[in-house]
Description:
Blueprint: H1 40-74, E1 82-86, H2 93-100, H3 113-121, E2 126-134, E3 138-145, E4 150-154, E5 156-160, E6 166-169, E7 181-183, H4 190-207, E8 214-219, E9 225-229, E10 235-238, H5 243-260, E11 266-268, E12 276-278, H6 283-307
Parallel strand pairs: 1-3, 4-7, 7-8, 10-11
Antiparallel strand pairs: 2-3, 4-5, 5-6, 8-9, 9-10, 11-12
Amino acid sequence: xxxxxxxxxxxxxxSGDLPLNVGVEGPFLRPRSRMRLRPARRVRMSRVTLILRIxxxxxxxxxxxxxxxxxxxxxxxxxxxxxxxxxxxHLSNAEIRERLGSAMGENILRIRLxxxxxxxxKSPWVDRATIRRTLPDTLDVDIVERVPLALAEMGxxxxxxxxxxxxxxxGPRVSGYDLPIVRGLAALDxxxxxRHAMRAGALLDDLGDLAREVSxxxxxxxxxxxxxxxxxxxxxxxxxxxxxxxxSTFLAMRGKLKERCPHAEFFDxxxxxxxxxxxxRSAEARDASRLAQASEAAIEDGGEHGGG
Length: 308
C-alpha cells in the first residue's frame, strides 16, 4: 500500500485564475505591512549635525582669515619702504618724505591716504596731491604744483600764482623766474590783498605767453588794473577780460599810435573796440621844463665862475 500525497485543492475562480486574496507577493510591489516611516527624532538629529558642521567650517574660516590678516598687518613685508614721486619740480623728494613723516615704516594697509594727502597740501607749492598703494611696500605720490605767475611786493618779493596764493620767497632757489611785479599789496588788509592778488593773477593767467610783455601791475581800489609794459614803459589800463585780445590789439597798433601820438604814455584799454590815448604832459610843457632846467644850470655855472 503506497502513501501518495495529493496536492491540496485550490479554489479557482470561474475564469480559472488564482483568487485575488492569495498571499503571493509580486516581484516589484512591497507589501504595506513591511513599510516603515523614518522616525522624526532621527530627522531632527540629522539637521542638528548639519548645522554643527556648517558652524564649525565657518568658525575655522573666520579664524584662519583673522590669522592671515594679523600676519599681513604685522609682517615686515608690508611696511612702507619706498616712495615713487611724480610731478614735483620745486618740492624735493626729501621734503615729501619729511612731510609724510611716520608713514615711512608703517604697515601700508593701516595708512589713511587722505591724511597723507592733506599733509602734502600744506606745502604752498602743492596745489593737488594724490597717493596710491602699490603692494607690498610702495607709496605712489602724484603732485600738481602751483605755477608762479608774478612776484608780489610784500616788503620782500614772493612768488604768486593765478589764485593769489603766495608760494615762496624770491631767492636763489627760484632766481630763474623772470616775472612781472605786483605792487601795492603789502599795505592792504588780508581780504583786500587776496582780492587784488587774485585779480592780478587772473590777468596774467589770461595773457598767457604775452605776460612776458608786462613789467609791473597795480590793482587800483576801484578794481581797474594798471599794467606797465617792459619794453617801452607804456601804462595800459584794463578793467575786464579778454585781456590777451586787448593787449594783442595794442601791440599790433603800437607803431601807428606812436606816430600819431609821439608823446603818449597812457593808453586806456577798458573799452571794447577803441583805445583812448592820454599824454602825461604836453610836448610844450616838456620843452619848457627842459629849457628852464638848462637855464638854471647855466646860471648856477656862471655864478660859480664869477665868484672865483
